[in-house]
Amino acid sequence: LSQATARIGRPRRFAIDLPASLNLVGMLGKYLGLAALFPIPLALGYGEPVHPFLVAGLVTSGLGWALERATRASAGRVGVREGFLVVSLTWLLAAAFAAIPYLFEGGEQLSSPLDAYFEGMSGFTTTGASVVTDFDEINRSLGLWRQFTQWLGGMGIIVLAIAVLPRLRVGGRQLMESELPGPEIAALSERIRSTARKLWFLYVGLTAIQAAMLSTLWVVGIDDLMTPYEALAHAFATMPTGGFSTQPTSAAAFSAASQWILALFMALAGANFALMYRAFVQRRPQALARDEEFRLYVVLVAGAATAVTIMLWAYGIAEGEEAVRTATFQVVSIITTTGMASADFALWPSLLLLALFALMFVGGSAGSTGGSIKVVRHLLLGKVLRREVDQTLSPEVMMPVRLNGTPVDERTLRAIAAFILLYVGLWAVGAAVIAIESAIGGLELGTLDAMATSATTLGNVGPAFGVAGPYGSFAEYGEASKITMIGLMWTGRLEIIPVVVLLTRHYWRL
Amino acid sequence: VRVFLIGAGQVGTTVVEALHDDHEITVVDTEASRLQALTARFDVAVFEGDGTSRKDLAAAGAATADLVIACTSRDEVNLVAGMFARREAEKSTTVIRTSSTEWVDLWREGQLDVDFVVSSELETAYAISRILGVPAARQTDVFADGQVQLAEFDVDEDATPTVVGVPLRNAPIPEDSKVAAVIRGDETTLPGGDDDIRRGDRIVVIGSPGAIKAWSTLLWPAGGAVRDVVIYGAGRVGTAIARVLITQGISVRLIEAAREQARRAAEALPKARVFNATGIDPDFLERERIGHAQAGIFAMRDDAKNQYAASLARVHGIPFTVAIAHDAVSVSAFEQSGIDVSINPRAVTAEEIVRFAHDPRTQQVAMLEGNRYEVLDVTTRESSRYIGMAFRDMPVHGSLIGAIVRNGEAVFPHGDDVLQTGDRVIIFTEAANAPWVVEAL
Fold this sequence. Notes:
The structure holds 2 protein chains of 2 kinds. Chain A is an all-alpha fold. Chain A is built from 23 helices and 3 strands. The longest helix of chain A is centred in the last third of the chain and has 32 residues, at 410-441. Helices cover 34% and strands 25% of the residues of chain B. In chain B, helix 1 runs parallel beside helix 13. The longest helix of chain B has 14 residues, at 75-88. In chain B, 44% of the residues are buried. The interface between A and B is small, with 9 and 14 residues.
């Protein structure tokens, strides 16, 4: 009997390999710290302080290095289970990393750690919701850092790590899928690393083209405000569907031509990158026309823009080219979850607000940098509902749900239904917390404002209505609301499941 | 004709039965007992050996064969045997039996190194569509993304009298189409305006998809009456039938008891309505109004089930029933029980194979892509002397312009139309003329 006991050993309680997860988070943090070097040349050039970035980089890389060393001895392999924890923790850490420079140079408005963390999370998750009220206090290098964090987060930190880091010791695919937006990535090639590289290649390329186009407007004198600095800063906010601006009035500060370019690139950022890679890089443009999700995306954008144009005209808010441009810009910005604004839509009548609110739940395409529910999920849910109605009458009928002609797995369809329910549930809880706290704290907030604030943070859109409108700020919200919003941004960016999985008992315990 | 037959099963036996009087037949099979059964009934040479062994084929005398038929029940064996036999006897014609519709498609694309492929499933499906009065045009080719079609029709008793026996220039033939060839007896002609089509002919038509449909109604006026069909069984036969009927524009409901099978059929046939049900539950039959279907086709694996389901369907009001009898014995039992038509897939397959030996017309048409006739798809050059010439003035030379594709649109030219540079010309021609045609354009 004693021999059997010896063999069986002591009970093991944990299902998860914590050291392995922390080890990988440490390694990712170690390299992530290097990103702080980016604004340093600019800071030196403008004679602005360099220490905020040095400290951020050193602290992040140092802590990462220490974490990696401390866990090295007992770390096992990172599997599917560990992947969720790695992704979730990495994003919490990244937001903190982004926040460090704000504490030094952001002035009074960003001096509270909670506000700085809010701004950091909003940047990395490409939400674009800001607590900044006084843009003069943000110097140029810190401003660029604020824009740059969105750009890093847009295509995904881990996707970037897979693309550039040598020998990332993970299977990769699971990790990447829990970070990339959308229910499925159309794999561009069999190997996960080359897929990651292609996505980043396109991302960098489109950012560069946009910055060049915007700068050209400045060179030829069409837009005097769109300096190369502003061009880069706004390209960093467009391609990741971020939405931060260096200007207190967002894109309204720039010329009509600049706004059209911004709208165009926002629309591109909301399309599937794998599909665009096929269309633009591999020169198969018919790939776009054949894709059901892309077609629905185009129809939604065009339909919503037309409707909003008519409403703006009818309300007398704008007319002619201005009405078309204002409508298109706002619609594209919100559908793709970018969140830049070319007008203070917080002042619009409630019918228009309701339309914009509804658009917050649309989201970009699968495999885009946009957030929210995403077009493909709406598309598939619609098909599932149609089938359910049909099967009410004829339970025996077999109707495979197809996407681009290919039958979709039933498991995937269930996951989509579950995602949408979780999404709506989280949104409702968030709206309730925000509404309750503002009622207690005396912040004047309408019902639609509270609902939009929850939707805009969960969907990584950016501005809400009321005080947190496009020209406003999130500074006035209470602490509980801000913490809730940070949670919503984080959960929304990781598409809920990787975070919610961490809340289940069986994730941790056997 | 020397016939070399591989496979002495049910199909092989039927083929031998039909051919043994007029032809010299050698049968190869691995099982001596089957060969003995054959020699007891027919005067044929037999060889016990493996069709996939080149040595055995040589020893059996395949080198002298004119026609090689591989009709075992296994696709792979038939393909290998057909290919080896072709190496042995280079001038022979090879026919193989397959159950794979994919292979039939591959053969049409010229990817299989055999002359003809006969699929039991497809032949059964064609037979059923003929029975339902919507005969599927056989061997339809498409050009220019489906804008131009090539189809083959039998002209029989049902054909509308106005097109029969009337010179083509006066006959009310559908617009946007041309009769490319008339096959009468052993002769194939490219008809001019003075020629006519007669009952018993087989004709090849080039035209727009709409015109091909119009030809169907001209030649089979009763066709098109069937709109709604129920098929029991979504196995290979049932799926093939559904596919053929759907392309004829018939709405198809498929009933399959096995869930996985039903799922696969639903995925493969987006236009069919597939039910995962036994089809003998009265509630189901009533609720889905199965009895309202104009015809029921029973293509399940089990003959007894087909018979029972067909009887039940009649009770529920389906007026016309067709059942698959896998066992030849079932045919008479089916007919006793009131099933309107019963079909034995093996017999249908054997019939089709026999036609290759008997009927030179079949061969000629089936050889459209291979031997005597070709359909060319040529883009005109600037230097061609036919540019700017009206079609009525062009010489005939054993070829016929079926359609031209201009700026991506198919045009079916009339006598006054003029050929332009860059036109893609779909042209039906005798193979001997093909180089000349390509040169001239």
